[in-house]
């Protein structure tokens, strides 16, 4: 398969979606683990130190570039696949009998992905842009100056509408992952019934645990539990 076919053929597009999806799943695990440091009960010290390490060390910064590349690729290919699917559904002969027993969220990946994209833009405006470009208040731990990202989170999640927006974004992410997790691996050739069943179980568990962890972060901050 040539590079052109990877980005233009149906198989290539699905393969790209699967690979980029798995990379993004791994990122969610790391991101959730990092953000969970806000619950350490130390006034944000562990979280700020972890965020400082991720921002000041070369390997995480290189991975950050890779993340944006895979994210952009995932978005573009997702939009292309959604457009192609809509074009096929608009044709009279293209009746998808295979979708009769499918879940609504598996048929709405384009919509869920669009909601997540809008949420992601807001998230970047709230946190990534200030930490990289516009500047943040500083915290000092053991003589080391670093961004006080924890205080920014506390200030951001004082607004109820922001908390609601983040929770809705996490709900959309949960449904997107409920189908996307297993779909990513099946696209790469995992079709054995035993493994497919395992992937479904892992996928449903992942789609609940990780988005729930993300949703609890703004909620607990708003309720002043951390």
TrEMBL record:
SUPFAM superfamilies: Fumarate reductase respiratory complex transmembrane subunits (SSF81343). The chain crosses the membrane at residues 21-41, 61-81, 109-129, 160-181, 202-223. One of its GO terms (cellular component) is membrane. InterPro entries: Cytochrome_b-558, SQR/QFR_C/D. Keywords: Membrane, Transmembrane, Transmembrane helix. This is Succinate dehydrogenase cytochrome b subunit.
